[in-house]
DNA-binding response regulator
Amino acid sequence: MLSFFDDNDGESAVQPVVLIVDDMPNNISLLFEALSRLNVKVLAARDGKSAVDQARIARPDLILLDVMMPGMDGFETCRRLKQDELTAAIPVIFMTALTETIDKVNGFNIGAVDYITKPFQLGEVVVRIENQLKIRNLQRDLEHLNAELEARVAERTASLTQALAEVEQLKNQLQHENTYLRDEIHLTNNFEEIVSRSKPFSHVLRQIEQVAPTHFTVMILGESGTGKELLARAVHNLSPRKKKALIKVNCAALPTNLIESELFGHEKGAFTGAANQKTGRFELADGGTIFLDEIGEMPVDLQPKLLRVLQEGEFERIGGHKTIKVNVRVIAATNRDLEKEVQAGRFREDLYYRLCVFPVKSLPLRDRSEDIPLLVSHFCKKHGPGIGKTIDTIPEDVLTTLAGYHWPGNIRELENVIQRALILSPGKTLTLGDWTWRRPLLSNPEGFVTLEAHERAYITQVLEHTRWKVSGKNGAAEILDIIPTTLDSRMKKLGIKRP
Ligand SMILES: Nc1ncnc2c1ncn2[C@@H]1O[C@H](COP(=O)(O)OP(=O)(O)OP(=O)(O)O)[C@@H](O)[C@H]1O
């Protein structure tokens, strides 16, 4: 007995189904009998329409289709079967009487696989059916193999795509980390020493560019370490006086009794200890610029003399009678609230107005934190060579940690942190070491950070302490008394990454 779907265990698998379509009951019974020799299930239909309906439901493995039938003939039935995707793949064998004059080629054209002629030679019929069922079986195997192959290809493609995406992500991350180092810091301004891409700071630089070529006195206001001196130098360098001297006086660094002599000079014997004549800094700055840093520290009794130089460009040395005329551009800076100083009577109002003709406010680092990556890279380049360090990677997590800090000491503090990090970095990747242990997070009353920044800093601190051991004995999760998965998700949320 023929079994088309025997599997390896010898068990008979699904029985093939053959649909006989003929309007003559005699033919159907003959075929029934012939097919009973095969291990197949036989279905029958008496006309084309019910054949199509049955085929849609039963999905036979083979259809024996009479050509000449009343109503829908075999050709039309076959056409319909082939148009329907549920039945299109079912092989069709046409049955036709020898006496019938039909166009056999047409039958093959519309999808038939074979012809059987009536009256039936039952032996031949069985062989033809067997052959078609074998072919059908092989086709099924092939389809199955194809599907399996496609599934495997799809699986491989998916994992390759995933791997490619991960590589791409890694590449992006590395590129990002290196961007600040690789790119020359091309700034669209005329400030060689000043590094910034921040929008608010670009307004400050714009003001500097506008005032620099004029003769106006410039007052630079801002917290300590925000780059006031750099701005003052920029004013001078962008002015027509750039070839002449820029003389700096730090009013806070000079003892009160010496400020007048430093600024205006003295004649020999003008006071005890004045053994020689001294040229003051206003005279030295003649034709150039004088930068009076920490102007808020200027003693009140000296302020009228300063006002006179500003207004008339003249003064006398201490102990001297000769009026000295100078052409000096004045730039002043302070981190104090000068208006308050005026109200408190420590600063003359007229001098205040004379100095504040053109005030420029330097910005604290916390208001331009987008500059942190640039500044970090700038300070690596500025200080690395001095201590024999070449940094080529600034990891994202280093930048994230730095961006989360409030910077009460501004850029000067950032510069110090980077100098220290450079010393501690063992290779070419910048590491912050245990900086987080030391930074005075809450030391500055104006410098409170957000809860999130504090949490980020604190978790980073603990992780650095445990050398990035998250779970297990002496791990960060144990210290923080939270479960490791919670710590993992906090780290993800806060952007904390193991260096
Ligand atoms: N935009 C910047 N780009 C590069 N370096 C900067 C920038 N701003 C400040 N710095 C650096 O930060 C340090 C502090 O800057 P600076 O001395 O100009 O600040 P300051 O406001 O004058 O401070 P203070 O009020 O204490 O005198 C300097 O080493 C300076 O070179």
About this structure: Residues 194-196, 222, 224-230, 293, 335, 378, 411-412, 415 surround adenosine-5'-triphosphate (CB under 6 Å).
